[in-house]
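Hello Y.,

Per our agreement to keep a running log of every chain we model this quarter, I'm adding this entry. I've kept the format consistent with earlier entries: sequence first, then predicted structure.
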Amino acid sequence: MTGVIRVLVLHGPNLNLLGQREPQVYGSETLAEIDALLAQRAEARGVEVTALQSNHEGVLIDALHEAGQGTADAVVFNAGGLTHTSVSLRDAVVAAGLPVIEVHLSNVAAREEFRHVSLLAPVVVGQVTGFGVDSYLLGLDAAIATVRKRRN
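Predicted structure for the entry above:
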């Protein structure tokens, strides 16, 4: 498999409120600013990136299913609060059969106890948490590196 690497970035519930919602926890950048930074990073690396945000679990599941059918080579995924509750998202990650990098703006392990368990963690390639916007950028780099290793 060769060609341009295609990465899907999925943003889960409430991430559309970035920049307004608890900036002391999530930072002051908006989702549009994060997506623009990801697009710049991807372009500089010769990679195609597509971003989708949804507050609806089923939309995220459908996007993972589509990615697994060949629309993406890897996924960078911030499932928000669904990280800790959704068996269905976990199963969709497995079903997609793609490398998925879990990202979080905040350090979830240093927050409320209910955030300490990720149902996605056992089925993703790895996690990047606690670096604010850089979590997404590092997650994109990890996705690219993972696809390149698998192609070699």
